[in-house]
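lol ok so funny story. i was supposed to be doing the assay writeup but got distracted and ended up predicting the structure for this chain instead. priorities right. anyway since i did it might as well share w the group, maybe its usefull for someone
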Amino acid sequence: MEKQLHKLDPDLHRRFANSIFLLPKLLSNYLVLFPEFTDHSETHSVAIIDYCNKLIGHDNLEHLNADELYVLLMGAYLHDVGMGVSEKDFQEFSEQVEFDSRIRDHENASMFDVTRAYHNDFSACFIEKYSQLFDFPSEAHEFAVIQTARGHRKADLFDEAEYPAKLPLENGNTVCLPYLTAIVRLADEVNIEKDRNLLLTVDPSNVTTERQRLEFDKHEAVKKVTICEDRIELDVQTDNPYLFGLISQLADKVQETLDYCVRVVDERTDFVITQKKIQIVRPSA
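and the output, tada:
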């Protein structure tokens, strides 16, 4: 995608390249609140870009205009920036986000709980508040990047107002937000292989509870995720039946996301997601 963007529009590529210089520090801030979590750093964002490339494929890539490539790259890089907001921004953003009753009516809901549950909305708030850092070419581009980042989880991609299929830009191009956001959401969902444990393997002391250990072990057992033309394969290696059961549940969750994204793209866009099935692959005896 980045090579194609540079080819189609060097100025948009320059804006993108300048923006990502800021991201290592911004994205690593999540460790302040979530030191025991799987990787949500710049490494994770780069992995999401890689998965987006594979999910899109050559045919769809040729049909994406420069503005769509720019929005997709920026949204993918920034999708988790809300995981590392400061306490001051947390208070400000909490007044902007519409929490559900589970959080709103829970007096003891912590910053940890709220940020984890609504980090996609906090990412949107962060991008809007600090938009001058990213040198967006227009307000429409800024809106598109915000919505792509926000939509990587929970958002309703069938909502035409929030996710227009042809968002008009001043240069005459349009941006297909349902497709771009569906690709980022799916790419984020399939980033479950052992590389997500990168930071934890450097500092194993971060894994301190049984729940954290299970999350760690799940990612360790998924050795590789392969994007095929018609399916997504999870290479799982474990002799632990309970752990394999947890991974099977995780695969079912990813399948639900895949089904949803396929339906959004089929019904609302001219693009296509060719992958239809999540398949667990185990080494033969």
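The chain has one domain: 2-281. Residues 93 and 125 are 6 Å apart (CA to CA).
back to the writeup now i swear
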